[in-house]
């Protein structure tokens, strides 16, 4: 799994558990509209899961939500696909007052699928 830690500030009245679950869903398989392919595939193997929530010390109404994303959700070798999936759509989510990606842990086996820069590295 790819592990992400988000700093979450829920809207007033939204419990942190609901905010964490919403971040996990919206950044993996969640959508606001009905998609015709929903009935073709079980989404359970692709869902992000919020597995732990802890309050941020010294910050009122802020939490660190830890989310695990199954590797099957991502295209191998595509940094763009990975980041778009994790952070591309979730930051405008209405249940949250603020959201920030704090940490991202990527398994070495998945990192090895990245090809690196197409034109090498130039040192200046």
From TrEMBL:
Query: What molecular function terms (GO) are annotated for this protein?
Result: monooxygenase activity; ribulose-bisphosphate carboxylase activity
The Swiss-Prot or TrEMBL record describes its family as follows:
Belongs to the RuBisCO large chain family. Type I subfamily.
Its domain of life? Eukaryota
- Biological source species: Corchorus cunninghamii
Gene Ontology biological process: photorespiration; reductive pentose-phosphate cycle
- Hydrolase among keywords: no
Main EC class the enzyme belongs to: lyase
Which reaction equation describes what this protein catalyses? D-ribulose 1,5-bisphosphate + O2 = 2-phosphoglycolate + (2R)-3-phosphoglycerate + 2 H(+); 2 (2R)-3-phosphoglycerate + 2 H(+) = D-ribulose 1,5-bisphosphate + CO2 + H2O
- Principal subcellular localization: plastid
InterPro entries, per this entry?
Answer: RuBisCO, RuBisCO_lsu_fd_N, RuBisCO_lsu_N_sf
Please give the name of this protein. Answer: Ribulose bisphosphate carboxylase large chain
Q: What PANTHER family does this protein's entry cite?
A: RIBULOSE BISPHOSPHATE CARBOXYLASE (PTHR42704), RIBULOSE BISPHOSPHATE CARBOXYLASE LARGE CHAIN (PTHR42704:SF15)
């Amino acid at each position: 799994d790819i592990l992400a830690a988000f700093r979450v500030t829920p809207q007033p009245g939204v419990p942190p558990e609901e905010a964490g679950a919403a971040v996990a869903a919206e950044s993996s398989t969640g959508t606001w509209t009905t998609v015709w392919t929903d009935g073709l595939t079980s989404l359970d193997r692709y869902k992000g899961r919020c597995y732990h929530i802890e309050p941020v010390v010294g910050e009122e109404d802020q939490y660190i939500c830890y989310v695990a994303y199954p590797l099957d959700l991502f295209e191998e070798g595509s940094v763009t696909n990975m980041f778009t999936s994790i952070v591309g759509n979730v930051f405008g989510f209405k249940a949250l007052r603020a959201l920030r990606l704090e940490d991202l842990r990527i398994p070495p086996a998945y990192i090895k699928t990245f090809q690196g820069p197409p034109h090498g590295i130039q040192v200046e």
